[in-house]
Design a protein that fits this description.
By secondary structure, the chain is an alpha+beta fold. Among the domains are: 27-96, no CATH class; 121-290, OmpA-like domain (60s Ribosomal Protein L30, Chain: A), CATH 3.30.1330.60. Helix content is 38%, strand content 9%. It contains nine helices and five strands, in the order αααααββαβαββαα. Helix 7 links the parallel strand 3 and strand 4. Helix 4 packs across helix 6 and helix 6 (185-198) crosses helix 7. The longest helix is centred in the middle third of the chain and has 33 residues, at 111-143.
Length: 343
C-alpha cells in the first residue's frame, strides 16, 4: 500500500442554521423603516407649521428650470447668493432685490390729517371727563336731601366752552338777598358741595353773574346791575373756595348784568338772575388766558406799489448817485470812489 493511501480522509460538514433571534438582517430593515417614518412625520410637522406664502415659495423653487437655476434669470433668486436660485426669501417667484428682504412699501402719511385726528381724540377724552364730572354733581345732588330741594334751580349742560353749572333764582326762592351780593345760607351750601366736586378735574373755572332787566334802584351813584352782577360772581367765587375748591382754578370772574338773558322773551323773569359756573375745556381756557390775543397786520408791498403806479405817483428810488471811476495810474489798478452810507 502506498503512502498516499495512508492519508486520513477529512470530511467537513457545514451546519446551516436558520436565522433566529440572533440574526441581524431584520435590524437593518427596521432601522430604515424607522428613519423613513421619522422623516415622514418631520415633513408633516413642517408642512403644518409653515405659512402659506412660504409653501408657495418652496413650490416655485422646485419648479425653477435647471437652466435658470444654473445660468440665472427670472426666478433664480438672490443674485448675491453663491448657490444659484438661493436666497432667504422663498416666497418670491422672481429674483430678490435684497438678500432675505422684500422691498419695503412706501407709505405716505398725511401729517395734517394725523394731527386733526389727534386733536379730535384729545377733545373726545376731555368731553368724557366733563360728562363724568356732570354725573358726579348729579349724584351729589341726589344723595343730599338738602340739595334735592333746589334740584330745579341747578341746571347742568355741556356747551362749546365746557360744562356749565347754572344756579338760577325762583320767584319765592332767590339765591341772593334782593338787590345785594349776600348769598342765602342754602346757596352757600350748594356752592360748598360743588366746590368739592370741581377738584376732581384739573380744568379752569369761569364764573359770571347775571341779573334781570329790572333797573337797579341804588343809593350809591353810578352803581348798576353791572356792579351787582360782578359782586355776586365774586361772592360765589369766595364760597366755592370755602367749600374746598383751589383758588388757582379760577381763570375769570365777570359780571354781565342783563346782557345775556336766560329767558329772552321775558327780561324781567327771576330765572334771569343767576350765577353761571363753567368748567372750561382746554380751548376755552387758553382763549381766556390769552385775553383775545393779538393780530399781526401784514403789509402787501406789491399791492401798495400797484396802487401808486395807477395813481401816477412813481415809486421812490434811491437818491445815491453812481460812484465815479478814477482814472487809472500806471502800475496802480483803478479804484472806485467810496459811497457814503445812507440810513
Amino acid at each position: 500500500m502506498s503512502s498516499e493511501d495512508k492519508r486520513p480522509i477529512v470530511i467537513k460538514r457545514i451546519k446551516k442554521v436558520a436565522g433566529g433571534h440572533h440574526g441581524g438582517a431584520w435590524k437593518i430593515a427596521y432601522a430604515d423603516f424607522v428613519t423613513a417614518m421619522m422623516a415622514f412625520f418631520l415633513l408633516m410637522w413642517l408642512l403644518g407649521s409653515t405659512a402659506k406664502g412660504d409653501l408657495n415659495g418652496i413650490s416655485e423653487y422646485f419648479k425653477t428650470p435647471l437652466k435658470v437655476a444654473l445660468m440665472g434669470g427670472s426666478g433664480s433668486g438672490d443674485s448675491s447668493s453663491i448657490i444659484k436660485g438661493g436666497g432667504k426669501d422663498l416666497t418670491r417667484s422672481a429674483g430678490q432685490v435684497k438678500e432675505g428682504e422684500l422691498p419695503s412699501e412706501k407709505k405716505i402719511v398725511n401729517i395734517k390729517a394725523a394731527l386733526e385726528d389727534l386733536v379730535k381724540l384729545e377733545k373726545q377724552r376731555e368731553l368724557d371727563k366733563l360728562k363724568a364730572l356732570k354725573g358726579s354733581i348729579e349724584k351729589a345732588i341726589e344723595s343730599n336731601a338738602r340739595m334735592q330741594q333746589f334740584k330745579k334751580q341747578i341746571l347742568l349742560d355741556l356747551t362749546t366752552e365746557g360744562l356749565r353749572i347754572q344756579i338760577v333764582d325762583e320767584k319765592n326762592r332767590p339765591m341772593f338777598r334782593i338787590g345785594r351780593a349776600e348769598l342765602e345760607p342754602y346757596t352757600k351750601e350748594i356752592l360748598h358741595e360743588i366746590g368739592k366736586i370741581l377738584n376732581e378735574v384739573p380744568n379752569k373755572i369761569s364764573l359770571s353773574g347775571h341779573t334781570d332787566a329790572q333797573p337797579y334802584a341804588a343809593d350809591r351813584k353810578g352803581f348798576s346791575n353791572w356792579d351787582l352782577s360782578a359782586d355776586r360772581a365774586n361772592a360765589s367765587r369766595r364760597e366755592l373756595i370755602v367749600g374746598g375748591m383751589e383758588d388757582a382754578k379760577v381763570a375769570r370772574v365777570v359780571g354781565l348784568s342783563s346782557a345775556v338773558l336766560f329767558d329772552k322773551k321775558d327780561p324781567f323773569n327771576p330765572v334771569n338772575r343767576r350765577i353761571s359756573i363753567i368748567v372750561m375745556n382746554k380751548e376755552a381756557a387758553e382763549a381766556a388766558q390769552k385775553d383775545g390775543g393779538t393780530v399781526e397786520e401784514t403789509v402787501n408791498v406789491e399791492a401798495q406799489l400797484g396802487a401808486l403806479v395807477q395813481s401816477g405817483v412813481p415809486p421812490a428810488t434811491s437818491a445815491v448817485p453812481p460812484a465815479p471811476v478814477l482814472t487809472p495810474v500806471q502800475g496802480i489798478p483803478p479804484v472806485s470812489a467810496p459811497v457814503a452810507a445812507v440810513h
